[in-house]
Write a structure and sequence with these properties.
Length: about 100
């Protein structure tokens, strides 16, 4: 996968739309970063859904990686890790979205 696409996918997973929608607020939710690369804001729920999918990164995590990311001395499964990261999304504030624009 070309890195611009990977960056756009990560950004879409991590970033989310502001929770309030008012007529005087910016409505643009995507920006072109470089040719072929767009930054897309998603909802926190969509970010959680994207984070909960096992991919090649997750498949390569070692036992140590999983335990250290969850700060656990006990064995951690990939499913437990995915459930944990899915809970780590949040919506951007209006001010943060405005700064990105």
């Amino acid at each position: 996968m070309p890195w611009p696409l990977a960056v756009a996918m990560i950004a879409a997973a991590v970033l989310s739309l502001p929770s309030r929608a008012m007529a005087d607020e910016p409505t643009q939710a995507t920006w072109q970063i470089t040719p072929g690369t767009r930054l897309a804001l998603t909802t926190a729920a969509e970010g959680s859904r994207l984070f909960a999918v096992a991919d090649s990164f997750v498949e390569k995590l070692s036992r140590f990686d999983l335990q250290s990311r969850l700060k656990s001395a006990q064995p951690v499964t990939r499913n437990a890790y995915l459930a944990f990261v899915a809970q780590q999304t949040r919506s951007f504030t209006y001010a943060e979205t405005t700064t990105l624009q």
